[in-house]
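To make this tangible, we now present a fold written out as tokens:
***
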Amino acid sequence: MSNKFTFLDFMNQSNSSTALVPISAEAEKQLVELEGFKGRPKEIKEFKDSVNSDLTSPQTLGEISNLIGEPKPNETEDEFVKRSMAKLTDYVTTKFCK
């Protein structure tokens, strides 16, 4: 049986698209250690806010949903989540770590 439920469906259903996406403590620590952000808490906050805003925009959510796609036939939920996280990580890395 095909599961047509997409990432965008999930975000729309859960209203997660309107909430800020928290940046993990580890990611924030790495950001603080970047040469361009050392001793610049205002710039760190602005960058975090910018990333959160972009990641929750309808356009970005659509891009991510298209990138992830639907669950593949015979793909377990755990396999789908693992594949989705890998694609999401690649997307964010490419978009924000130029």
